[in-house]
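ok so dumb question maybe but i'm new to this and my supervisor (M.) told me to 'just get the structure for 6-phosphogluconolactonase' and walked off. so i did the thing. is this what she meant?? sequence i used:
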Amino acid sequence: MDAITPAPVLHRYQTREALAEALATGVAAVLAGAIATRGSATLAVSGGSTPKRFFERLAEAEIDWRNVRVTLVDERWVPETSERSNAAMLRRHLLKNGAAEARFLPLYMDAPTPEDALTDLGERFQRLARPFDAAILGMGADGHTASFFPDADNLAKAIDMATDAPVVAIRAPGAGEPRVTLTLPLLVDAHLLALHIEGEEKLAVYETALKDGATTDLPVRAVLRAPRTEPLNVFWAP
Ligand SMILES: O=C1O[C@H](COP(=O)(O)O)[C@@H](O)[C@H](O)[C@H]1O
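this is what came out, is it supposed to look like this??
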C-alpha cells in the first residue's frame, strides 16, 4: 500500500455535539487569524446534512464576519426555494447571528443548466482570494466528496490537479440533479483542510479509501492523496 504523506490526522469525538464545537472553534481561530493578518478570510463549506451542527456553533463565533467570504464546495442545480439547495441550508444554519454579515458567494445561478453559468461562475471564483483559509469537506457513504461522485461524467476534470477551471458541471447516477463543484486544486490548497464525517458507515468508507484503489470507486481518495504540506484533518464522531 502506498503511504499517504503527510498522513491524515483523525480526530475522534465521543459525540457529534463535541465534534461540532471543536471544529467550529478551530475554524473560527483560522478565520480570525486571517482577518488579523490580511484583513479578510475565505471559508469554503460543504452542503448535505452533516454540517448543520457545526454551522450552528460556528455562527456563534465572535469574529469580524463582515470580512469573511463564505462559499460552498458544491451545489445541486436547484434554486434556494428547493429543499435540496445547499445554499438554503447554509443560510438557515450558518448565515445568522453575527455570521449573517459574512459575504456569501453562491454557486447556483438562475440559468437552465450548470453549463450555462460556468463562465460567470469561473470569473467569480478567479476573483476570490486563494488559497482559501479553510475548506471543510463532507463525504457521502458512496465515497463522494464535494460533488466528486463515483462514475460522474466530469470526475476526471474535477479532480485534475492541473486544471485551471475553478468550477465544473457534474452529472452522476447517484447525484440526483445536475451539480456544480469546485475543483480539487482549489480545495486542497486551503490552509486548513478538514473532512467532517459522522457514523460508523462513513468511518469504514474513509478507512477503505486510505487503502489503494480506484478514485472512480471512492473519489474521496483524490483528496486523501492530493499533494499538501499540512495534513488533512479528519473530524469524526459516531
Ligand atoms: O450531496 C452532498 O453530499 C455530501 C455528503 O452529505 P451528507 O448529507 O451525507 O452530509 C456533501 O458533503 C456535499 O456537499 C453535498 O452536496
